[in-house]
Amino acid sequence: MSASGHARQVDEEAADDLYDRIGRFLIDHGLSPDPAHYSFAYQILTDPGGSIAQAVDRLSDGRVRVTPRDIEKLGTSVATGEPTRAMRGNDDAAAGADKLVAQTQAQVEGFALMVRAMHDETRGFGRDLEQSAAAIVHRPGIEGIDEIARVTGAMIARIHDAEKRLARATDETDDLREKLAEAHLAARRDPLTGLPNRRAFEEAFAARDLSHGVWCLAVCDIDRFKRVNDEHGHAVGDRVLSVVGQTIADACGEHLVVRHGGEEFAVLIGPTSLAQAAALIDVARATVAAKRFRNRETDRSLGAVTMSVGITTVRAGETGEQAFVRADQLLYKAKTAGRNRVLAE
Fold first, then answer.
1. Helices 125-137 and 85-122, packing angle to 10 deg
2. Are residues 34 and 153 in the same domain?
3. Closest Cα to residue 132, out of 99, 156, 165, 104?
4. 9, 156, 203, 227 — which has fewest CB within 10 A?
5. Can you tell me the distance from the alpha carbon of 177 to that of 81, in angstroms, rounded to the nearest whole number?
6. Please, what is the end-to-end C-alpha distance for the chain in angstroms?
């Protein structure tokens, strides 16, 4: 290959890599493949030390995503198009898997009922036949009694074998039902923290009882979490996430606490007033701030680990996403006001 050809190949590979990185950026931040979003990602990825990239780092404070409000503050309009194909694919795959589990559960339930019915109907049949055969054998003068005994004995053996196989099928069906139930729960649980995940939140939000009063939604975000990962490594960061998530869950009692994504946790509180919900979540905030985290490997202190919280009343008729966006905006204001605080509205 000539020098010019090699250089062209290198340029093409670099372009492909940049294209892939832009695609991943759009997916990570929930942005549609709109030209404005593409340009926004291009500026950040091609000039990581530039003012826009640094501003994004400051605004997001290490979160997984910058918010639409963040992007607009940087002078880029936020398009309202569909998410990227890859993102839709992930959501569709999760929904498809969930639907498949539900369908399989229904089929297994039906099969279990059928097997149990068969087992109940045949449970005493072999014993009854065996007793009838014994009575026939002991009656003298019946022509062909030996042949009848032989055929009956063969039937009894086959029935006993069928009963054993039905019993095994019943046990296997029960085991499969348990595994499907476990799979259903696993799809709604965050593997790192053990807390429910975003899907569990969406289902709980849709199923909440509106007849007993007001519900509130809190969004909690660990302050300067990127610093923890950068200075101590992701393993330490994961432990911090787990401890903070469990601390919030312990403080909130029976209310639903989920890991919504990255270092963000959502809490569905209710029915209760906004003031009571804010007081409850402030206890969680204060408990987290009072903890003293250390790096197990180096025994080095992590410094203060705090969280900021935005909490809002869920309005009538709105979706979980709408309430979340409003709580997230309050969270942003709490960070701007100095972090380690709860802002309720």
1. 30
2. no
3. 156
4. 9
5. 41
6. 65
Amino acid at 298: T
Question: Looking at 73, 106, 121, which one is the last position of a domain?
Answer: 73
Q: Which of 263, 264, 297, 318 is catalytic?
A: 263
**Cβ pair 164, 187 in contact under 8 A:** no
Whether this prediction's pTM lies above 0.90 is answered by: no
Overall domain count for the chain: 3
Residue 291 included in any domain: yes
The rounded distance, in Å, linking the Cα atoms of 326 and 92 is 26
Q: Give the pairing of strands 216-222 and 307-313.
A: antiparallel
Write the pLDDT tens digit of every residue in 30-56. 676 666 677 777 777 777 777 777 777
The 3-class secondary structure across 253-286, one letter per residue, is CCCEEEEEECCEEEEEECCCCHHHHHHHHHHHHH
321 assigned to active site = no
The enclosing domain of 289 has a CATH number of 3.30.70.270
48 touches 12 (CB < 8 A): no
